[in-house]
Amino acid sequence: MTTTLYGFKSCDMVKNALKWLDGHGVKHEFFDYRKDRLDPKVLDGWFARAGWETVFNKNSTSFKELPEAKKAKLDAKTARALILEDTNMIKRPVLDTGGKLQFGFKPDAYAAAFGKT
């Protein structure tokens, strides 16, 4: 499976991850979910592999702006609906190596994932 980085180009963390991948010669595809609609099956796969709590970004401005009642009822079903409505609620970037998922950008974790230590 191809390594895919998910996010959007204007995000600094995504920019850093793309720069790292390019700088270390890691072949990858980039999926900008602000330009193209994220397939719900991809999201479901992330939930199955990592758990919705790992995927969902409670620190996002979009989440913080939600009414308290909506925040209080947060579960997998609600998180899925919120993410499909607003992809800003995904922790980013998402790196899918085919075997593992990583959320956020940490150079050491990327180096370990690709044997670039």
What would you say this structure looks like, in words?
The chain is α+β, with helices and mostly antiparallel strands and 117 residues long. The protein has one domain (4-113): Glutaredoxin (3-Layer(aba) Sandwich). Helices cover 45% and strands 12% of the residues. Strands 2-1-3-4 form a 4-stranded mixed β-sheet, sandwiched between helices. The longest helix is centred in the N-terminal third of the chain and has 12 residues, at 12-23. The protein is elongated and about 45 Å long. The mean pLDDT is 94.
Q: How many separate helices?
A: 7
User: What amount of the residues lies in strands?
Assistant: 5-15%
- CATH C-level: Alpha Beta
Radius of gyration from the alpha-carbon trace, in angstroms = 14 Å
Q: Stretches where pLDDT falls below 50 for ≥5 residues?
A: none
Q: What is the total tally of β strands?
A: 4
Find the CATH topology.
Glutaredoxin
Mean pLDDT over all positions: 94
Looking at CATH, the homologous superfamily is Glutaredoxin
Helix percentage = 40-55%
Count of discrete structural domains? 1
Question: What's this, in brief?
Answer:
The protein is α+β, with helices and mostly antiparallel strands and 117 residues long. The protein contains seven helices and four strands, in the order E-H-E-H-H-H-H-H-E-E-H.
Task: Name the descriptors.
117 residues, alpha+beta, Glutaredoxin, 4 strands, 45% helix
Give the SSE map.
Elements: E1 4-7, H1 12-23, E2 29-32, H2 40-50, H3 52-55, H4 61-64, H5 68-72, H6 76-85, E3 94-96, E4 101-103, H7 107-113
